[in-house]
Design goal:
By secondary structure, this protein is an alpha/beta fold. The strands form three sheets. A nine-stranded mixed β-sheet has the order 5-4-6-7-15-14-13-10-11, with helices on both faces. The protein has a three-stranded parallel β-sheet with strand order 1-2-3, sandwiched between helices. Helix 7 packs across helix 14 (413-422) and helix 10 (253-265) crosses helix 11. The protein has helices at 32-45, 70-81, 99-109, 128-134, 137-144, 155-168, 190-202, 219-224, 226-237, 253-265, 275-287, 338-342, 364-369, 413-422, 426-431, 452-457, and strands at 53-57, 88-93, 116-120, 173-180, 206-213, 241-244, 270-273, 295-296, 306-310, 324-332, 348-355, 357-359, 372-378, 384-389, 395-398.
Length: 466
């Protein structure tokens, strides 16, 4: 209850709704203490302040095509036996629930048919909020929790609908090579993939991500598994842009630098995030400055050219709690910076960080003489945050993780720049003052592709005590 009252941003206002998720299956021994906590919690906060949503699978065997309600009945019965009664039953299913099935769940689970919500498989995850809105979920919350919302035209919802419709009818494709170490499981880079999707949607293109294991680009793979080596390079060379995300450890770093080297020489759009930026600096030091053993001290502590070093506050012998974490301010030092223009020509940005190593500030002047400009630095001017290469269509590295602040209707500027450059629209976008064309803007009479003004309108009126 204490946690629920803590403000989620800097305005200090106490939240009016707190969402708590309890994952797993009803009856799992691991979740029993939490279910008991929920049971007690509903009495502490009173019924009008507690709404229980139960998510249940409704299987549909292909042999019969019949939607089975028994799993839902059993899980609700067990949940009620533990002292919790669901207010809404969210039914995950392959196809929309038949009316008879809805009524059956309603009858045996002790809820009204309007409290049985169908969440069937849809073409895009962005259609799910629209699905819930169509079934009256928002209105139910307003009544059930007595939320003092003001009904007004929902501009943001119409923008969201347009975005969902757009995702289903995209014709043009854009391919991005994601060069990393954990490419066998796409979930490893979920935030990065979503940020790319947001930007691709904004420019009316369907995204194709080509996952490349960075180790497959190295010469050792050419000797051991030449087929895998050539397939990896074919993927890289056929992509419209290259992205090297964050990571840890020495494995695969040489392959990442090979990909960065190729993108730099071939004038291919490139974005390096966190480790990706550090390796871009290492690659430039080796192949442009001629420092053959240039490296990060994370990978080679004995390097005679340590272009990436551990931060002063980092204790190499102690890994836990020694990272530079959370939101930090980056100050732009150049008026001609592409990234600064993409951010709206602001003087600074606040982005989230997660790193132990930084570019060696003592060597910066060597890089800038050769055209690798450190256009963004921290408030003290000691840490390099943004790097850009002159005379390149888009070669950007950022120390922070911009994917964490990307949103579907407001994509992250570094990722948007990568996608725009990949489809050859970056120069036109910048020359227009970094505004999308009417074809690309989510136009719902609000004249803006940003939802911030719409979010500001979604305020609860202040409740004056009677």
């Amino acid at each position: 209850m204490k946690q629920a009252k803590i403000s989620v941003d800097e305005d200090g206002v106490e939240p009016q709704v707190c969402v708590i998720e309890l994952g797993g299956t009803v009856g799992d021994i691991e979740s029993m203490p939490f279910i008991e906590a929920f049971r007690q919690f509903q009495f502490k906060v009173k019924r009008e302040n507690f709404c229980n949503i139960h998510v249940s699978l409704v299987p549909q065997p292909s042999s019969t095509g019949e939607q089975k309600t028994k799993p839902t009945q059993n899980s609700v019965r067990e949940l009620r036996g533990l002292g919790l009664s669901p207010d809404l039953i969210m039914c995950r299913c392959a196809s929309p629930l038949d009316t008879a099935v809805k009524e059956k769940i309603s009858m045996f689970c002790h809820v009204e048919p309007t409290q049985v919500i169908c969440v069937q498989d849809v073409a895009s995850v962005y259609r799910v909020p629209l699905l819930l809105e169509d079934q009256g979920v928002v209105n139910y919350f307003c009544q059930r929790l007595d939320l003092p919302t003001v009904t007004r035209p929902r501009k943001m919802l119409s923008k969201w609908k347009e975005m969902a419709d757009r995702s289903a009818r995209l014709l043009e494709h854009v391919s991005i090579a994601l060069v990393g170490k954990y490419t066998k499981l796409a979930d490893s880079y979920t935030s990065v993939i979503k940020a790319l999707e947001h930007s691709a949607l904004a420019i009316n293109h369907r995204l194709e991500v080509k996952y490349i294991d960075s180790a497959d680009l190295e010469t050792t793979t050419l000797q051991d598994e030449p087929v895998k080596y050539h397939e990896a390079w074919q993927k890289l060379c056929s992509s419209d842009g290259v992205l090297v995300p964050g990571g840890f450890g020495v494995r695969g770093t040489e392959g990442k630098m090979q990909a960065i080297n190729w993108a730099r020489k071939q004038n291919k759009p490139f974005l390096g995030v966190c480790l990706g930026m550090q390796l871009a600096v290492c690659e430039f030091a080796r192949n442009v400055l001629g420092w053959e053993d240039a490296n990060s001290t994370e990978f080679n502590p004995e390097s005679s050219h340590p272009v990436v070093i551990d931060m002063p506050e980092h204790n190499p012998g102690q890994m836990g709690g020694t990272m530079r974490l959370g939101k930090r301010r980056t100050i732009f030092k150049s008026n001609t910076s592409v990234l600064r223009k993409l951010y709206g020509h602001v003087e600074y940005v606040d982005e989230r960080h997660r790193h132990r190593f930084e570019v060696n500030p003592e060597l910066i002047h060597y890089f800038e003489k050769k055209g690798l400009q450190f256009v963004g630095q921290d408030v003290e001017g000691e840490r390099m945050e943004v790097v850009e290469l002159e005379d390149h269509c888009y070669f950007v590295g950022v120390q922070y993780h911009p994917e964490f602040t990307s949103r579907p209707i407001k994509p992250s500027p570094p990722y948007l720049g990568l996608l725009l450059a990949a489809v050859g629209k970056l120069q036109g976008y910048v020359s227009k003052g970094c505004r999308l064309s009417p074809r690309d803007t989510y136009s719902d009479r609000s004249g803006s592709s940003s939802p911030e003004t719409d979010i500001c309108e979604l305020r609860f009126p202040s409740l004056s005590p009677e």
